[in-house]
Amino acid sequence: MYAVIKTGGKQYRVAPGEKLKIEQIPADIGSEIVLDQILMVADGEAVTVGTPLVSGATVKATVVAHGRGEKVQIFKMRRRKHYQKHQGHRQNYTEIRIDGIAAK
């Protein structure tokens, strides 16, 4: 069984037992969260696709950790104009463990 969820402006394919890094959400470590924006649920051959969301479907997850991703280097340059700009960015994330998928 798996589901396609939407969180943080991105879509993820999740299955029970998986660990996943998503955009940071305000939740304590160890707390359970319920993700309710489910786009698709598949259980064997039975596939339910939402329009745009599957009504009544939820995914339960546990917050494992919070962290920051790898640094991304941004370098901008205009040739012959003596312009160079260096910049870096580290995105915050929340790591979750998928506990179960409930579809009605």
UniProtKB/TrEMBL annotation:
Keywords: Ribonucleoprotein, Ribosomal protein, RNA-binding, rRNA-binding. Part of the 50S ribosomal subunit. Contacts protein L20. GO terms for cellular component: cytoplasm; ribonucleoprotein complex; ribosome. This is Large ribosomal subunit protein bL21. The keyword Cell inner membrane does not apply. One of its GO terms (biological process) is translation. The gene is rplU. NCBIfam families: L21 (TIGR00061). GO terms for molecular function: rRNA binding; structural constituent of ribosome. Belongs to the bacterial ribosomal protein bL21 family. This protein binds to 23S rRNA in the presence of protein L20. It comes from the Bacteria.
